[in-house]
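Cross-posted from the bioinformatics board.
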Amino acid sequence: MMLNTEPNIAAPDDFYEALLAIHQDLTPEQSRAVDARLILLLCNHIGDLDVLRQAMARAREGIEPAGRDAIIAIQA
Amino acid sequence: MHVDYQSLRFEYRRSPDQSAAQMAHHPVVVVGAGPVGLATAIDLAQSGQRVLLLDDDRCLSHGSRAICFAKRTLEIFDRLGCGDRMVEKGITWKLGRVFHRDEPVYSFDLLPEGGHRRPAFINLQQYYVEGFLLDRARSLPEIEIRWDNRVSGIVQSAGKVELTVETPEGEYRLLADYVVAADGARSPIRKALGLESKGRSFRDRFLIADVRMKADFPAERWFWFDPPFHPNQSVLLHSQPDGVWRIDFQLGWDADPVAERAPERVIPRVRALLGQEAEFELEWVSVYTFSCLRMERFRHGRVIFAGDAAHGVSPFGARGANGGIQDAENIAWKLALVLRGEAPDSLLDSYDMERAAAADENILNSTRSTDFITPKNEASRAFRDATLDLAKDCAFARRLVNSGRLSMPSTYRDSPLNTPDADTFSGAVVPGAPALDAPLMVDGASDWLLRRLGGGFTLLHFAEEAPVPPDTVPPIRVVTVTSAEDAEGIAARRYDTQPGTTYLIRPDQHVCARWRRFDPDAVRVALDRATGRG
């Protein structure tokens, strides 16, 4: 299945308002926790890994990594 | 009789090879008398192959190393003649529990079905495993063990490997047709050949304490994320024989690896878990960082790398020693056939293919677990915490909680030794998969399918009545299982059998071909393929 990027939410302004409302008065850290839970819940609801991968790729588009993971390449 | 295998010291004995006018020649030299080297030597010896086993010191392993040995490894130990001792001494378990803070969030049963001779796991200190393997090895006249024989040089030329070996009486040289390097994570042989093992290390430190105490925890694997007694970090608890418990405390990257080893730092951590009144002794304490890495190829000419020398994983999943034992049994039968001239040298390439795929699978699982336990950036941390929070009441999130995906044997799905199915089958025992055990009744006595398979190439034939397969087969053993013997029908289900169904099983008990009816020509072709002659 293709990721649907056409309008799919009947009441877009209601949705957007609800999305912002769950972040009201939260610190960035709290917001990150809420977002993480929301993403996990939605991904499970969608279930189709192929669609999820398309969405992940679309979300990541155009963002050049400026940070660094805490991993060390090793050679033994 | 209790033997303290940790404190055993073996005698260095001068070998006639050391004063021979010409370099002594050995068909196969195994370097390293750890679990992998010992298993390789025993397996080779059981097929009649003379083996020289070299070890760089005079003792077995000591302290906290591998403890979890998986069902498939126990089945291999059965074939190697020491499974019973392992299981009798070991602590049998199959349940894992995961806690978040002080609440249980997830539990898993590693062997929910019956009809297997061996349990999902036993916990047994590595020194016992090595001790039992060593006792078995010493009972086999084909194996010569030389302690305090350290390989210091290795050169491959003209179809031979020349080893330089250092002993307390100086060095000597010997020739080998093949060398199995089971010389551990720091593999001196790998270094001597200028080869590398590459991968990634995790920015985290773990304190591993083996503690001797009386405790009433059940024989289960308990894993805590962020418990009240060790906030913000994880803790793993495992039971071992002799009243020893393995406790693994995550410390974080900034922990001082030397200071954290000090008893005055360790004891309060243990007390926080066990209670202030707990009485215990520290048996072993060390601080580790973990890595996942592998060599690009496990075979370099006549030198074959096995176990930690070839690949390394983090301990969450018990995939190090278990993977290594499976390396051993994969290489042993192939080497034995090649040395007997019954298979071409190219058969050994299939070791690299099959076990490299297995190493990748182990590394993938181990990396995923470590990524969950040791988040590598803020987002990993946020998703990890969100998963644990949701796991309390959302079933889907429990499946995402990853405190270690425990060792399962690899299925060599893409192995060139397999004959693809021409008939239709269902069930898990596909070509490349390890044979599954099942209870049998033979002449009124209970038996097990894997025990009847034993080693060597074997035709496993399912029939209404025995014996069915005609004697036109190439010289391989036939094990016929009748429906009366498979009284509970478990073998029939696991192997999706009909009368006449026939499986060709390799010496390492992996399936390499199967048919709906016995056909000697098909068997011959499949056998050729499975021995690299196809």
